[in-house]
Structures are given as structure tokens and as C-alpha cells.
Amino acid sequence: MFDQRSLINGKEDSASNYARGFYQLAPEYQETFENSMRIIAESCDFLDGICFFHSYGGGTGAGVMMGKTLVLWSRSYIG
């Protein structure tokens, strides 16, 4: 159903602790996430937008990677 090259998964759990997910776990997956996004973007002729689905079984830390990525990308691309 989904292209396996674009899926990122892991077994680590933030134990419903947002700070642990944001400051410890998200940086561990950052490079993997960026590489996956780069591969997807490079395969497009005209990239108009990106749709994210995350944490099908997540809890409090479900959106941590997305939040961390948006913070980092906004600093580096927007200023």
C-alpha cells in the first residue's frame, strides 16, 4: 500500500514524555527522516507539496519528529 522506501519506523518509545521525545529521540531519527524526504523530492518532476502521515499507534510523543523538523527547517530556510 505504501512505498517501503518512504516509511520510517522505530521501536523506541518516549513513554508519554514530550521532552524525551523532542530532545532525545527526534534527533536520532532526523537524518533518516531528511534522507527519506530528499529521495522522495528528487524523484519528483515538480514538487508542489508534501503530505505527512505519522504515528498510527502513537501517544503523547506522536508528532515530535514533525514538530522538531518544522522547527529546524524553518530556522534554516526561512531565517
From TrEMBL:
SUPFAM superfamilies registered for this protein in UniProt: Tubulin nucleotide-binding domain-like
MF (Gene Ontology): GTP binding
Keywords: GTP-binding, Microtubule, Nucleotide-binding
Pfam families: Tubulin
A GO-annotated cellular component: microtubule
Coiled coil location: none
Domain Tubulin/FtsZ GTPase: 2-64
GO BP, one annotated term: microtubule-based process
PANTHER family the UniProt entry points to: TUBULIN
UniProt superkingdom: Eukaryota
Protein name stated in the entry: Tubulin/FtsZ GTPase domain-containing protein
Similarity annotation: Belongs to the tubulin family.
InterPro entries, alphabetized: Tubulin, Tubulin/FtsZ_GTPase_sf, Tubulin_CS, Tubulin_FtsZ_GTPase
